[in-house]
């Protein structure tokens, strides 16, 4: 069961990369984090994943979810979120496989122009060889991940067991026991099977851009 609490995560409202629980360390004892992962498998039900958010979308999300923040703190978090995306442009870029719920694409964040630019960015990103994006349509019905979003971090260099990150209002949880990893991996495989294909998902994104 998920039990280990890690450092704050930036994907929705924080501003740090996922960091693993105590005891999981990389070379020379340095903590392993999203920055060291080679692949992320992400299910996003509510919002566009942070790694593919535009600046204006991220700003609107942070302001909406944390209205008590000062303008300076909002901007600090936006900058941190944009900096995090450097993982996608390094020499050996992070590989992403994302299943994004249709609800996340249709939820109006920041107004029509912000959403149009955001969906266009998703469409362009989906054409990159290291990024696979599938849209989970409403008609897919109930599925094993309806209780919440999650990210599976996969480490290959140096090799390390997968770990699952679960985001929530109560805090950030990590699961690295075999049963939890298997359960979330199985759920992600199910989502990939019932979601629209990458090519069909690009058609969905194109239609959304035309109709926003």
Give your account of this protein's structure.
By secondary structure, this protein is an alpha/beta fold. It has one domain: 2-Layer Sandwich (Endonuclease, Chain A). 36% of the residues lie in helices and 18% in strands. It has six helices and seven strands; from the N terminus they run ββααβααββββαα. β6 (159-166) and β7 (173-175) form a beta hairpin. α1 packs across α2 and α4 runs antiparallel to α6.
Topology overview:
Layout: E1 4-5, E2 39-44, H1 55-65, H2 71-84, E3 95-101, H3 102-106, H4 112-126, E4 131-136, E5 150-156, E6 159-166, E7 173-175, H5 178-194, H6 198-211
Parallel strand pairs: 2-3, 3-4
Antiparallel strand pairs: 1-7, 2-5, 5-6, 6-7
Features:
single chain; 212 residues; alpha/beta; Endonuclease, Chain A; 7-stranded mixed beta sheet; 18% strand; disordered N terminus; DUF5753 domain-containing protein
């Amino acid at each position: 069961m998920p039990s280990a609490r890690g450092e704050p995560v930036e994907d929705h409202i924080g501003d740090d990369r996922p960091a693993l629980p105590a005891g999981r360390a990389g070379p020379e004892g340095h903590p392993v984090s999203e920055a060291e992962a080679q692949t992320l498998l992400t299910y996003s039900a509510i919002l566009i994943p942070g790694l593919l958010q535009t600046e204006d979308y991220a700003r609107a999300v942070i302001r909406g979810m944390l209205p008590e923040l000062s303008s300076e703190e909002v901007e600090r978090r936006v900058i941190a979120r944009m900096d995090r995306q450097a993982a996608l442009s390094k020499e050996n870029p992070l590989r992403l496989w994302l299943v994004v719920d249709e609800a996340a694409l249709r939820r109006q964040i920041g107004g029509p122009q912000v959403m149009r630019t955001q969906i266009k960015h998703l469409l362009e990103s989906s054409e990159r060889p290291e990024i696979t994006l599938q849209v989970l349509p409403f008609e897919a019905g109930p599925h094993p991940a309806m209780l919440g979003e999650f990210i599976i971090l996969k480490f290959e260099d140096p090799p390390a067991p997968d770990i699952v990150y679960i985001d929530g209002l109560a805090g950030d949880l990590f699961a690295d026991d075999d049963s939890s990893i298997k359960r979330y991996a199985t759920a992600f495989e199910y989502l990939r099977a019932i979601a629209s294909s990458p090519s069909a998902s690009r058609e969905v994104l194109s239609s959304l851009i035309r109709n926003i």
